[in-house]
From TrEMBL:
Record organism: Devosia epidermidihirudinis
Name of the protein: DUF559 domain-containing protein
Region (Disordered): 127-149
Residues annotated as transmembrane: none
Top-rank lineage group of the source organism: Bacteria
Pfam families cross-referenced by the UniProt entry: DUF559
DUF559 domain: residues covered: 20-123
InterPro entries xref list: DUF559, Endonuclease_DUF559_bact, Restrct_endonuc-II-like
Xref: SUPFAM superfamilies: Restriction endonuclease-like (SSF52980)
Length: 149
């Protein structure tokens, strides 16, 4: 069986499935995610999206302009297997040039003001630089290779 290409590559098949899955996730937001979503939407001059496909993962919230992903973690994120999955996921998202901010369900429900203070501070940081594309070297190394010509 041939799998569809990752989101954004090749045919639109993979993209359609990814978008449909994101729609399903948005309809099933838990109370902490819904609460944080309402607070994020109230921020002036900042645009967050929810359940954003990034490769094979879905970010709870992402602000593309600031390259910031916010993940709301529930009780299931405390196990060793969940920690390993989160580490793999975070490494991928980081490799795409995003910062990851993790907040707990508990903090969102009990200390939304504190969570939003951290979000605002993260938005004030300059966005991380995008990683270089695979196979691209620096211009200085390319010049030094051809300097003997």
């Amino acid at each position: 069986m041939r799998l569809p290409p990752p989101c954004g590559e090749g045919s639109r098949v993979g993209v359609g499935l990814s978008i449909e899955r994101a729609r399903q996730l948005r309809k099933r937001m838990g109370a902490p995610e819904a609460r944080l979503w309402n607070a994020l939407r109230a921020l002036p001059d900042v645009h967050f999206r929810r359940q954003v496909p990034l490769g094979k993962y879905y970010a709870d919230f992402a602000c593309h302009a600031h390259r910031l992903v916010i993940e709301v973690d529930g009780d299931t994120h405390g196990s060793e297997s969940a920690f390993a999955h989160d580490a793999t996921r975070d490494a991928f998202i980081d490799s795409q040039g995003y910062r990851i901010m993790r907040v707990s369900n508990r903090d969102v429900m009990r200390n939304l003001e504190g969570v939003m203070t951290k979000v605002i501070l993260a938005l004030e940081l300059p966005p991380p630089s995008l990683p270089p594309h695979k196979g691209e070297g620096s211009l200085s190394s390319a010049r030094s290779e051809h300097s003997d010509d």
